[in-house]
Specification:
alpha+beta; Aminopeptidase; 2 domains; 8 helices; binds coenzyme A
Length: 312
């Protein structure tokens, strides 16, 4: 029987190989199962941003599996420990090594470590990818929130719709607001990740923007982050008390991303917001489920997760 590989971590010298593995495994899986390999482009270079962002956010936390004889990279997954939980970023096994337990072998020690610390593990899993969904289900993850991946092409002249009510109240977050923003998310979603918001506000790797809305009394009502990096155009993570706040935040982020087509993970339960995005030209791309292994924190408001960094 083939062995699943030797576990270790990755360093900056591995980033090109990691980018190639991520790109190859996504193209091969989506092409062979769904005929959608084209979605991941023809170059691996854009995928370097993934290990670079995680190396800056959580140095030494990525897990790699390597062939014992050749040292060749067989698989990689990104681990993101936070005070309230552990998040798992993309998990990928090279096409030649799939189905021999590489992913399970990488994830089991991560789950055991989180369990020993009493922390749940969270991720977002594609509902088009039944192999990864099954992998996570077998390991004990249970879905709790459904998201529609909506892509919104923003013309160079901006969206052809009037700004929604509330857009004038949105402002860029100040550099010292990470703690306040994290407090809002802790209150609404029961998770704690000030470190991430401090990272976005400092903006050392990638190209991030952070917007907030406050009530007339000065209470935070919502936050929305966007990645404007040419290799990763996505809106989120974000959290909002209601659909009106989320709508104003999303419009502002889209307006800042003119000439691109960012992806937004929109909670399926926010039906009015989804229809608003259709009205702005949004199209469904995929479906994702937020899943937790261990206790899922009770949540209120609306959350907008992302794939980079993983932010279920
Ligand atoms: C998803 C992926 C990471 C799985 O990696 P892998 O190394 O082939 O997975 P493993 O061999 O460790 O299999 C894990 C378990 O899932 C099970 N599994 C896989 N596909 C399954 C399916 N369709 N139904 C039921 N179980 C399935 C395996 O049988 C195995 O269970 P077991 O250990 O109890 O026998 C791999 O297919 C991949 O890299 N895909 C492309 C990248 C991707 O889409 N990543 C996920 C999105 S982030």
């Amino acid at each position: 029987m083939k062995q699943p590989g030797v576990l270790g971590t990755i360093g900056p010298e591995d980033h090109d190989a990691v980018a190639r593995l991520l790109h190859r495994s996504l193209v091969a899986w989506y092409e062979s199962k769904l005929r959608q390999g084209y979605r991941f482009g023809s170059q691996s270079t854009p995928y370097r941003l993934i290990p670079e962002v995680y190396a800056a956010l959580d140095p030494g936390e990525a897990v790699a599996s390597r062939d014992a004889a050749t040292g060749e990279l067989l698989g990689v997954c990104f681990v993101h420990p936070r005070p309230s939980h552990v998040s798992l970023g993309i998990v990928a096994t090279s096409p030649e090594a799939q189905g021999r337990g590489v992913a399970r072998a990488m994830l089991e020690p991560v789950l055991a470590k989180a369990q020993a610390r009493g922390l749940p593990v969270r991720l977002v899993s594609s509902l088009l990818n039944l192999d990864s969904f099954s992998l996570y289900s077998r390991l004990g993850f249970v879905p709790h929130t459904l998201y529609q991946d909506v892509v919104v092409p923003v013309p160079a002249a901006g969206l052809a719709v009037a700004p929604p009510v509330g857009a004038s109240r949105i402002r860029r977050a100040r550099p010292d607001e990470a703690g306040r923003i994290a407090g809002l998310e802790r209150r609404l979603q029961g998770i704690d990740r000030e470190h991430d918001y401090a990272f976005f506000l400092k903006n050392p790797v990638g190209d991030w923007r952070v917007w907030v809305e406050e009530s007339s009394r000065g209470d935070l009502l919502g936050v929305m982050v966007a990645s404007l990096h040419p290799h990763h155009g996505m809106i989120g993570p974000g959290v909002a008390v209601d659909e009106a706040t989320a709508t104003a935040l999303l419009w502002t982020a889209l307006d800042a991303m003119r000439g691109s087509s960012p992806v937004i993970l929109v909670p399926c339960a926010a039906g009015g917001l989804v229809r608003t995005l259709y009205g702005w030209g949004g199209r469904n791309l995929e479906l994702h489920a937020a899943q937790t292994c261990g206790r899922a924190a009770p949540a209120t408001g609306l959350a907008f997760p992302t794939f980079l960094p993983e932010s279920a």
